[in-house]
Structure formats: C-alpha cells, structure tokens
Amino acid sequence: MEELAKVLPADLLPSVQELFDEFSLAGMKSAGVEVQEVKGYRLTPGVTTDALQYAYDEWSFREGDVLLGSFPKTGTNWTLDIIRRLLYDESSYNLCKNLPLSTLILEAGSPLKFSVLDKLPLKRRLMGTHLPAELLNLKKLKESKAKLIYVYRNPKDQLVSWFHFIQKIPHLVNHPLGHMINQGFNNFFEHALKGDLPIGTKPGEGYANHLLSFYEHKNDGNVLLLCFEDLKKDFRGQVEQVAKFLDIEITNDRILEVEKLCSFQTMKENIDTNKNQQLQEFQTANMRKGDVGSWEEVLTDEQSKLVDEKFNQVLNGTDVKFVLQLPSNMEPTLQKMLPPDLYDDVMELGKAFSMEKVKSATHSEIPTWKGFRFPPHFSPELGKFAYDNWSLKEGDVLLASFPKTGTNWMMTILRRLLYNEEEMEMYKQLPVSLGLLEAGGGKKLDILDRLPLKRRIIATHMPAELINLERMKENNAKVVYVMRNPKDQLVSFYHFTQKLLAKNQAMGELINNGWEKFFDNAVNGNLPSGTLPGEWYPHHLLAWYKHKDHKNFHFVYYEDLKKDFKKELRQLAEFLGVEITEKQASEIEEKCSFGNMKQDISSYTKDAKIFQTANMRKGEVGDWKNYFTVAQSELVDQKIKECLGSTDVTFTYCL
Fold it and tell me: Which residue of 118, 217, 617, 636 is most buried, as measured by CB atoms within 10 A?
C-alpha cells in the first residue's frame, strides 16, 4: 500500500485495502467448497457470481480499455505483461503491479473493485478473464469501443502447464474435487479432457469449447485472436500486430525493449522485486517453463491422439491450427535481417561449431601453430587462412585480449557504441564462433564479409605474432586491447575452464586438480592459451603492447573501466570516431553493468547462453585475495616484473 498511497487519492485507499483483504490466492484456501454456476457454466471454486454478474449487468468498459480473454495456462500472464508494456509508461505500469489481484481479473473478488477501477488514474484499463464468451457482455463491450484480445495455445502444452500450475494452488488441491488433480498427471489428464474440472465451462466441456466461444467473434472489429506459439516464433511481428490493433504507434527500438522486458527470464527475475505479495504469489505459481513442445516429455502417444480427436471434433469447420513444436534453430531476428542464403549458411555454421560441442569435446591433442599452443576449439587452418587471405576493413574493430581479462564486457561496450538495437539483437542470435576470429571454420570468414554491418567487431585471444597486423594497419581497421591484473585473471580463468573445458582429455590434467595445480600450470606456461610453451598472459600482453603507439591501437585497463566507466568510454568513443552525448554514455553504462548483462543472457540463443553463463561470474577487482597464498602473490609479482618490467604497464590489484 505504500507505493499506492503515493499515487492514489486518499479517499480511494480504504477501498483498495479492502480489496487486498477480500481476495488472494492464499485467502481462497478458506473460500468454501461450493462450486457456483451461472447459466450452466461452473466457476472455479473460490470464485463467486457477484463480480461477473455485476460486470455483465451494471458495469462497462470505457473506450480504449482492453480485455484479455484466455483459458488457463495459454499465455495469459505473458500477454498481459506485453499489453501493459504497450499501454503504459513506467509510472502507470508500476501502479498496475501494485494493485490488488482482483482488479486484474474480471470475475475475481467483489463488485467493490469496479468503483476502484473507475477512479484509477489510467486512460486505458486492462483486465484479464477466463470466463467463456457467453458470460461476457460482448455487445456492451463493443458499443463502448473497448478492445478484446483472446490468446490461445496448443492444448497439449496447455494441459501439462495447467497440471503443474494447479498443484501450486492449495485450496484446489485440498478441495473435495481435489481427487481430480492431486493423483498424478494421468488422472488429471483424464478429468480435464472429459470436462470434469469446473473452470468457467459446462459439464463435459473444456478448453476447446472455450476457444470456440471466442472464435465465433473473430470477425468483430474489436476482437483479435492471438496465438502463443506465434508470439514465440515472431515476437516482434506479433507485437506490431497487437500495437496496431490497439491503435498504438510503436518504434522498432520500443519493440526490442518490450521483447527484452517480457522475456521469460526477465519476468521471472522481476517476481522477486515485486512488492505486491498477492501478485508475487500469483506470478510465482504461473511461471514454470514457458516453452513450446514440452508436452512430448509427458503425454503418451495415446493421450496425444485423444487430444487431437477431442479438439478436431469441437473445432471442426474452423481454421484454428495449433503449433505443437517450433524448429530448434528458429531465430526470427536473423530470418528478418539476413538474405535466405546467408541465413542458411549462418545456421550451418552454428551446427558445425557450438559451445555444447566444446563442453563435451574429448580431443586428446592440443592444436598448435608456429609453436603456439591453443585450446581445443581453435582451428589452425582458419588462423592460417585469415593471416594469408583475410582482413578486417576500414572502421572494423578487432578486440584483442587474453582469456578472462574483460573480453565479454568490452565486446558489449563496443557493440553498444557502434550498433543500434536491431543490430545488437542480431548479434545475440549469431553463432558464437562469428564473434571469435580463431573459432569455427567452413564459410565463417565469408559469412563475416556478407553480414549487413557497416562496422564489424570480432574478438581474438591469438597472440599478435599470428595476426596480420600490417595488413590491418593498411586497411585502417582498429584494434582495442583490454588488460586486467593477472591475479584476478588467473582466478577468473580457473573458474571459466571448469565450466567449459573440464571434460576435455587434453586439458583435463591441467585444470581439473584444484586451484593450486591450475595456478602452477598457468604461471609456468603449461596451459595452451595462445602462448608458446613456458609463456603465459604477460607474454601475450607484451607482444600486443609493442604496437601501443600506433594510431589504430587503443589499450584499456579493466580496472580503469571499473573506476571511471564514462571517462574510459569517452576515450574509446573518440578512438573509434563515435560521438556520444552524456545521456548516451549513461545509458551504455547502465546497459553494460554486470547485473544488466547477466540478466540479458536470457535474450541470447541457447548456445550463446552457455558461453555467456560461463563468462559471467563476479566481475570484481580483488577477488584474487580469496584464493592466493602470499607465496603465490609474490611469485606472480616476480614473473610480471621479469616480463613487463621494461614497459609502463601498471596493474591495479584492488580498488
């Protein structure tokens, strides 16, 4: 109530508090066992006829209001959030998050909520309902020029999701009807398909009949049918359609923002920050997987066939088509941005080289080239071809670094400086190997040349000796080298290798025997990481640092970015020839924060998530103190002095 007290009139607050007190999922435990009926339709236990009858007879939506109709577990929660993001600014969105649960569900609670709804400072109100179309006054809704959206989902995933959801609602599990839902999925399936469960349906009817009741209004000018799987396949296209239906002008950047805010992972993470206990409880019960096709893990062949027969019987004569599975490599962003032949090549590259394969690889040999030894994912053939035949072009950027010195962070910063939101999203969908010069093979370099980008960014952990830097200088490409103190680098590298390379035969003995063994192998140059035998990070840095005075080279300390991000960002932008305002600098700083980057992992492809998750651990300065002995620290100091003592390289070990 604290947040609501800041924005609502004082005389409205007692009514709002009463709504909080009268209806909640927890409160429904003692709501009684009677199943109420209206016109032969049985309501969910705990839901009374009072609110729905008042809404039908006495209350009206206003012009521009939106009602979302759905059957349980067909995408209601997700679609509601999408529509809120389209309708409201941040202030109004937060107001809705703090309102009593009954104000979000037409049939929930008492008629008191309608007087509250009429006084809310919202130009357009949004409510959801699981009632069938027959119990809604759709004629009055149309006359008021309100909008109705109905979201539907394939019935097999709906059944599985509904089963798991209903187990989290104690008053239903413990209800006299609980024997239909608390004795395993097979028992639940039988009762659900037969229409035994009271959920705004007549006896013997269920989801198919509910969908049909709304389908019959699909040609009404104020009704839109929306498919859950279409949202999963083409979120942006579907959101554009919804926005147009709701008479909302929307930019591509706003669609991308809504896509991120309404991702499953972001919504799930936001539950914990929601101060509205009612809504938090409701959303916790709602959020499980949100995917397409998990029914295959649960339904038997016979059950699947029974669902098909039931829905074909009820929906015969309609054009309703359910999507039961999505293609595994479906990347809508890439499909929209890339020509078909380039898209096909990108998908092939993704299959040929993946983080899943890197994790499970059992290579017994260490790749080498000109005496330098590399991790198992390195392709000497690709490195040789790039050196002899390929180069970055004018304006392109090579991000050079040793592993775990801030590469991932700097790559995100560079992309934020050089790319718009659509290009950012495209990069998230590209195969991981397209971001690392020495990884992958096949048509990779050809694909890089065909990407629709004015300036390309590619990272490398290769030593300077194996990059054709003279050609890059001639082409006026840029090089950014990021440095980090070697003590934190070692700790971060240790954890990273455990996540990605622990199963590798060639690397196993070097990394799988605890921190002390790893430390010894690393500082003595035994780890294959783009170095000669006996060499490690300082030697890698030194080879690149020899080019520090060239106009196309820029060196950045990881710790300086942590100390004064905007200062380092402005210097980087100037080096790249990019003008940024103070507002843009602040936005990039926020988007490139560790917390936001970690949250953003959910928007990447499955393969990229593996890589990003392995990369994101703490991002701190000074964590080495939790691992190093005094002797280890002194040994690193000595080795750094021996290798870099003649340079002006100075590391920061603590902030």
Answer: 636
Burial readout 313-333 (b: 16 or more C-beta within 10 A, e: otherwise):
ebbeeeebebbbeeeeeebbb
Kindly report each contact of residues 625-631 with a partner whose C-beta sits within 8 Å and lies 24 or more positions away, as own/partner. Answer: 625/654, 626/491, 627/491, 627/494, 627/515, 628/487, 628/491
Q: Which of 84, 102, 101 is nearest to 93 (CA)?
A: 84
Q: What one-character-per-residue DSSP string does 405-440 give?
A: SSHHHHHHHHHHHH--HHHHHHHHHS-GGGGBTTB-
What is the predicted pLDDT for the residue at 29? 45
Which two structure tokens, joined as six digits, stand for 437?
A: 């010069």
Whole-Å CA distances, 400 to 378, 462, 540 = 15, 8, 10
How many angstroms separate the CA atoms of 72 and 130, rounded?
7
DSSP state of 105: B
Please spell the DSSP secondary structure of 223-237, one letter per residue. Answer: EEEEEHHHHHH-HHH
- Average pLDDT for 464-481: 93
Q: Which residue's structure tokens are 């990021």?
A: 482
Cα–Cα nearest to 457, from 514, 414, 498, 426: 414
Q: How far apart are CA 291 and CA 228, in angstroms?
A: 10
Most confident of 526-535, 558-567, 584-593: 558-567
Token digits of residue 146:
């309100």
**Among all residues, which ones are annotated catalytic?**
461
What domains can be seen in the chain, in order of their start residue?
2-314 (3.40.50.300), 332-483+544-617 (3.40.50.300)
Q: What does pTM read for this prediction?
A: 0.55
pLDDT value of residue 173: 55
Contact status, residue 241 vs residue 233, Cβ threshold 8 Å = no
Q: Write down the pLDDT at residue 417.
A: 95
From the list 49, 23, 33, the residue with the least C-alpha distance to 178 is 33
Virtual torsion, Cα 182, 186, 189, 190, nearest 10 deg = -100
H/E/C letters for each residue in 32-69?
Answer: CCCCCEECCEECCCCCCHHHHHHHHHCCCCCCCCEEEE
User: CB-based contacts of 514: which residues, under 8 Å, 6+ apart?
Assistant: none
Residues recorded for the chain: 655
274 has pLDDT over 60: no
Nearest to 312 by CA among 320, 303, 323, 302: 320
Chain mean position to CA 147? 29
Q: Which two tokens stand for residue 177?
A: 């009807």
Q: E strands along 284-422, which residues? A: 368-369, 372-373, 397-400
* Residue 302 near residue 146 (C-beta atoms within 8 A): no
